[in-house]
Structures are given as C-alpha cells and as structure tokens.
Model the fold of this input.
Amino acid sequence: MGEFDLNHVDDIYFDVLKEIGNIGAGNAASSLAQLLQAKVDMKVPRVELLDFSEIGDAIGGDDQIMAGIYVLVQGDITGSIMFLLEQKSAQKLIGKMMSSMGMEPGGGDVLNEMEQSVLKEIGNIITGAYLNSLSAMTNLKITESVPDLTVDMAGAILSVPAIEFGMVGDKMLMIQTAFTDDDEINGYFILVPDLPSYSKLLGALGISL
Amino acid sequence: MSDLIKVGMADLKLCPRGQGITTLGLGSCVGVAIRDTSTKNGGLAHVMLPDSTAIRSNQNIAKFADTGVKELVRLMEKAGGNRSRFTAKIAGGAKMFAFSNNTALVNVGDRNVEAVKKVLAELKIPILASDTGLNFGRTVEFFPETGEYVIKAVGKPVKTI
Done:
C-alpha cells in the first residue's frame, strides 16, 4: 500500500472522500433534526480541496467571526474533526435548543457559559453522528474526545486544521453543508485524518493505494 | 482598507514604502513583519509550521518559519534592501483550543514563535516588538513607512506595536 498524498489526489479517492462527506453530513443532519425536534433538510454538501490561501474566502472571509467545535478522533484511525458555524447560525441553534429545553437564551453577542456548553453539546452530537456513519461504512472503531469550542475569526480557527493538513500537503479538504429548517444554518465540516489513517480509511472501503 | 496588500496563509509578500500589507485571522500561525529601516520598504510572511526539515511535504517554503523568513529576507535583499538595517515585529502563535493531545500539534503556536525567533537571531535581525501566544486570533496590518504593526482581535481594543 503506497503513501497517501493530498497534493496528488486522483478522482477515485476524491469521490470516495466526497461520499464519506455526504453520508456523514446526512447523518449529522438527522441527529440535528432529532435534537431540535424539527424537520431539518440538508443541501447536497460541497466538497472541496482548497489551497490554504483560498480557505478563508471559501467560507466568507478570514476575519468573519465563527464558532468552531474541535474534536479529536481516536480508535482505529486518528486525527481530528472540526465543525464550524457562522456566528448567527450558532446563535440560532443555541436559541432553538435552549427553548426546546425550556430555557431562555441570553441573546447577546458573546456566548455565556450555558450557551457555550449547549453549543459544545450540539457540536458533540453532530460530529458524533458524522463519525458514527464513517465507522459504520468502514467497520473501523472510531471514538471522539470531548469537544472544545472557540469563537473567533474564521482564519484563526481554521489555522488549526490547516496546520494539520500543512504537515502532509498544501491543500485542505473541506465539506460545506447547509442545514435548513425555517432558516438556513450554514455549517462546515473538516475531517483531518492523520496521514496513516487515510490509507486505513480508503483501504477499509476497498480501495488500495 | 481595500488597498492593503493581502498575504494569505502560508504566503509571503513584499510591501513598498507608502503602502500597507495585511494578513487576516492569524491563529497558531505567526505573522512576521520585516522592515528595512533605511529604505522603509518591508514585507510580511504568514508562517504555519516551525520546521521545514521535519516534514516531507515541504515544497511551499512560505509555509515554514525557517524557510519562510529566510525567503522574505532574500526577496527584500534582492529588491535592494540591506539586511544589516532590517528589523522585525512578530504576532500570532496563539493556542486556539485548550486541549491538544495530538502530539504533532502540541503547542504549535509556541513552537512557531520560537522557530521565528531562532531564524531571526541567525539572520541577526532584531525583534523590536511582539504580540504572541494566548488563545485568540489576530488580524495584522503592517506599514513599513512608519514601522507600525497594527493588531486587531475580536472583542479587544486595536493595538499598535
């Protein structure tokens, strides 16, 4: 089995990575629907392999303020997964979740402690659903760490997965998903398998490098 | 704002006297601003990782502290600058998430800052000011004419170093 190289991803691998993205995000949308007890639709995710310089523009600017939920992936494969939400989308989700629990969201620009833990929980459920479908597809054991949350400029948050990608190439694989119920909620997934895990992932799907 | 020269992630560019140069949303990356104190020309590098020799995929020299800073200095010298007159200011190198037991990523922000300091010391370029570490992102704007390095962070007052 050869070494995986993100700078030279051929069409088959890219399609597989895309499909992993589609199914994972679809599963995440169902969990979100359950969580909010509402119908949640998902647009067909856009999967892109981006140059570092294009990352910020792809999500509306490096200095746009976003919420990033970061989870470490453990088990048969290792790496990390990040779920990013526009600040407004994050506030909408928190509001919905809190009212479904009979609580009053703060509504301010800065998230209070309760809102932060609600958002972490949302992130945990969404990334968990994503990883579960990945695990089911590949028969690999995949677990996740407790989530961590940061609200900051998109570029600064994305520097974390970008640095991980930077160790293996000059591009980053990003899956953009828009969830909609009454309003649109824009979210982005970034799955960063460690280099040896690419071969394991693709191998488990029957593709040898 | 719009007339500032923009430097992306893992990128570097020169900035002539009279103009400004910016890089948006530095997280664990480091923005290295270098100025020729005589010509008042400058440049900015946005480096992501400390050490090009530790990584096999190292073609993009702007990505690493060691090769990126040297390349910026080389380009400034090629454009007529004199290294003995160069000074530097640095910002970034934050720890964006509290945890990280991913060994390759442990304190990458700190390691980036250390690597930048090391290469600047090797090149004998003094660091006049720095704003590094902590846990938030920074957008920087550098004006080589005056040497001002402006740092903006979410929910914090604008700072000039």
About this structure: The domain at 6-204 of chain A is CATH 3.40.1550.10 (Chemotaxis protein chec). The interface with chain B takes residues 5, 7, 52-56, 61-63, 65, 68, 70, 72, 78-80, 110, 145-146, 148, 150-160, 162-164, 166-170, 194 of chain A (CB under 8 Å).
